[in-house]
Structure formats: structure tokens, C-alpha cells
Write a structure and sequence with these properties.
Layout (H helix, E strand, L loop, with lengths): L6 E2 L1 H16 L9 H11 L6 E2 H17 L4 H16 L3 H37 L3
Antiparallel strand pairs: 1-2
Helix pairs in contact: 1-2, 1-4, 2-3, 2-4, 3-4
Length: 133
Amino acid sequence: MDKSGVKFSTDEVGNLINRAKASVDDFNYVPDVDLQTKAALSTVGAQAGKELTIGQLDKLRQGLYKRYNKAPEEQGIRAIIDEIDDLIEAKEPANALMSAAREANKRYKNLNYLMKHLQEHKEVQQQVEAAGM
């Protein structure tokens, strides 16, 4: 995706950081209690002054999802992820690139799933034939 040349300016990243900080307040964010949210804000805040490619922004998003999965009760993390999604959605062709990449990844996973089960079926069939059934 980075070869597409789609980048998010330092201003866009700065606005994302500000929106992320504001969005966690909607969930009664308490830094000493919501430790995963605090770490998520720190990670996002560390991007200040940087221009990010779509790949870097997506990697940031994936890292936030890992934090969210560790602490699903910390809804502020989900709000930060939503802010990243909104930023990507608002910028063409980033939105189209992300949609295409996610669709390709979904198809790849489905193909791997089918191939795995086909191989298992072949192994069972070979065992049945070897047993003379």
C-alpha cells in the first residue's frame, strides 16, 4: 500500500491526535485506571510532527486493536481506532486502497482455510483407503 504514495500530512496526523484525545473523554477516561487507553494515546501521540503513509497508519491501527483485545472494557481505545478509520475514509484513494487490501486479505484467509480442510479430507480419505474400507 505504501507504494501508492498516499500519505497523511503532519497536520492531518496532528488533528487525529487531538480527536483521539477528545474521543476518550467520552468514556470517562482515567489515566491511572485505563492503562491500555493511556498506552494507546501515548502511541498515537508519538506520531506528532510526522507524516504517515497509509501502511504506517494501518500498522498503528492494528497495534491499537491488539490493545483493545487485551482490554475490551476500555472503549476509549475503540474510539481512537474509529478516529483512524474516519481519517482513512475521508481521504481518497486511501479508502479504496484499504478496502481492497482488506478484501484481498479476507480472500487469502478463506483460501487458506479451504486448502487446509481439503488437505485434511485427503488425509482422512487416504487413511480409509489404507484401512481397506
